Amino acid sequence: MRIVLWHGWLLEGSGSNIATARVAEVLRSAGHDVLLMCQERHPERYPWIDAVGTVGPDGVAISEAETGSADTGRCVLLRPDIGELLPVFVVDEYEGFPAVKTFLDLTDEELDAYLAHNVEPLRTAAEWHGSETAIAGHAIPGAAVARRALGDGAYVAKIHGSDVEYALRPQQRYRDLAGEGLRAARAVIGPSADVLARLTELVPGVEHLGRIVPPGVDAGRFRPLPRRDALLEAAARLDAEAATIAGGRPEGLDAEVARALADRDAEALDTLAHRYDQAMPDAAAASTLRVVAERDRPLVGYFGKLIPQKGVELLLQAARASETDPDVLIVGFGLHREWLTALRIALTGEGLAWLEDTERLALDPDPAPGRPGRGAIVAFTGRLDHRFAPGVLAAMDVLVVPSILEEAFGMVAAEGAAAGALPLVAHHSGLAEVASALEREVGVPGLFSFEPGANASARLAEGIDRLLVLPSEERRALAETVSAFVAREWSWERTAQGLLDAATA
Length: 505
Prior knowledge:
Blueprint: E1 2-6, H1 15-29, E2 33-37, E3 51-56, E4 59-64, E5 74-80, E6 85-88, E7 99-102, H2 108-129, E8 133-137, H3 138-150, E9 155-158, H4 162-168, H5 172-182, E10 188-190, H6 193-202, E11 210-212, H7 227-240, H8 253-262, H9 266-272, H10 285-293, E12 299-305, H11 312-321, E13 327-333, H12 337-346, H13 352-358, E14 378-382, H14 389-395, E15 398-401, H15 411-418, E16 422-426, H16 429-442, E17 449-450, H17 456-468, H18 472-489, H19 492-504
Parallel strand pairs: 1-2, 1-8, 2-5, 3-5, 6-7, 8-9, 9-10, 10-11, 12-13, 12-15, 13-14, 15-16, 16-17
Antiparallel strand pairs: 3-4
């Protein structure tokens, strides 16, 4: 079947990006002819992409020779020419776009221009491709783009959660735009019942179209491994690819963060985050992983974006209050990084009161006032993409997902569970559905979740201790059970088939 996937951004760095890439890969491997429309700048990183080109006012132009076959499966990536402005839900740096603005900050004229820059390319590309069905990502802008380009009933709309909370909920114009696209869709796909309920609260009239299709995990790559082996392998891979992943956070920046903290200089902390390439691993990432690999301590981790909405500061506070005193490994990128580094320093020194006063971090009252450092470390690596992610997740005893705002599903929790890291997630939104499914599987309610809200870091600390005090054999058995569950229930093959079933029903 000829299938077009519309996605407005990249293929790494966020849950929706990764989901789009994995679905495209699986559909291609199943023998389908896939047209993938997105803004990915490095298609060479994806061996399953067979041809690359652009689409604009002059039509489709293929810039890299085709290597696949329409008979055995093929994926062609086309980048629509949308100009210099990239609208996003949460601001980060994006290669190739000098102007990045949130959807909330777009003027009506900018929004109209962005939609037009996507509608005509999608129509042109679908005609060129001969697409038989379409899957459009996000309630906005994907659903409206597909409706205007392809017509009523010619597509399914796949929501992800960021569209609901960072666009639809705050502004009526996006609820109106989403309604236009969603009500004309063949089906509206959500990864959890929670996110579909939140969507239909804001955009009534689409309830009958809703279908749950959870995202997946590549269980062949995300699987339990011995910690030391997993980290050393990831470090070796970082070394081997050093030439292509240069430009990340330099080793000396911690000292500048400490000076900014001592000077109580919020502007300096903000500026430091722009001094390096957020999309790359830290310059010292490989050596950091080697240090962690040689330490004989429990390891708690976080994997994801470093933005205020993700609540990483709760983990830093909780780890300090934990009775089991674990090491902490923070894997991720975002403009919030230097504030989190400042918090790490302040929790064992001075400056915590100032950080609280800035209100840039969602801090609880200090859960361990006056407690001195007890030997644990907090290590950051910067962004590690899916070439390196399986190893670092497999190394963690506990993977914490402390998001403050609602999540559609919590794909990283599923990936961590597949890799043998026991998940510990905030008990709300789609995260609660993930935790509940895993808790039912092991027969222990509440084991993999903690209650959000005021003083959540204290409850998170209790949750960390609840898992880490278990005998190592019991933890290993739990890890094997949840890993097997994820491999069985949440595979990308099931996800892709669910989307295709909805598109062809």
